[in-house]
Request: fold
Amino acid sequence: MLKVTDIDVSYKDVQVLWDISFEVKQGEFVAILGANGAGKTTTLNAISGMLNIKKGKIEFLGKDITQIPGYKIAELGIIHVPEGRRLFPEMTVRENLEVGSLFPEAKSKRKETIKKIFEQFPILEEKQNKEAGTLSGGQQQMLALGRGLMALPKLLIMDEPSLGLAPVLCKQIFDNIKEINKDGVTVLQVEQNVVQTLQMCDRAYVLENGRVSLHGTGEELLNDEHIKEAYLGI
Ligand code: ATP
Reply:
C-alpha cells in the first residue's frame, strides 16, 4: 500500500534522514520505533507531504506521491494524527470531529461516521458539546483519533499516541487503534513505547540516527538482543 524507497530529508542544510526504506501492506499494523531525535516524526511528515524530499520515492497505492502537496495526499486517503494532537481547544468535541470530514465522500457520510465513533468512544458522545480543551489527555487523544477517522482514512498515521498518557490510558488507546486496524484501516504508528507497540503491531522498523537499523515482526524484535539491550534494558 505504501512503499518508501531510499528517502533523504534535510532541514535546510542539516540532513536528518538517510536512505529510509520501508513498506506497509494493505491491512497491516506497522510501527516505527526509536529514541528521541531518531527521525520518526520527520519520516511521518515526509510521507504526508509536509516536507521537501531531497532524494528517494514514496508510492501510495501504486501512485508516486513524493512531490505531491499534503492536502492532496490526505485526499488520497493518508490521514495523519500528529504528535501533540493539535485539536482546536475552544471548539466543541463535536465540532472538532466535524472538521475531520475533509473531503466530499467523508462529508456525505459524516453522520454515520460520528455515530460509529461515538459507539467506539462513548465518552466523546457524552462530552460532545464540551470544549475540547476541557477534556483529559486520554480523552483528547481519543478525539484526535476520532477526528482522523472522520476523514475515512485508508492509511492512518499515528505519531506517538501514548505521549503523556498514564499506562492504563495508553493501553486503552492502543486497544482502540488495534480495533480500528482490525476493522480494516491500515495503520502506521510511531512510538517510543517499544514493548507495548511490538506486542500489538504486525511488523516494525527501528530508526537510529536517521537510518533504519533493524526491521522484523513484533515478535522477532521483542526477542532481538540489540532491542533488549538498547530499548528494554534487559
Ligand atoms: P521525538 O520522539 O523526540 O519526536 P523523532 O524520532 O520523532 O524524535 P524527529 O522529530 O524526526 O525525531 O527529529 C529528527 C532530527 O531532526 C532531530 O535531530 C531534530 O532535532 C531535527 N529536527 C526536527 N524537526 C526540525 C526542524 N523543524 N528544524 C530543524 N531540525 C529539526
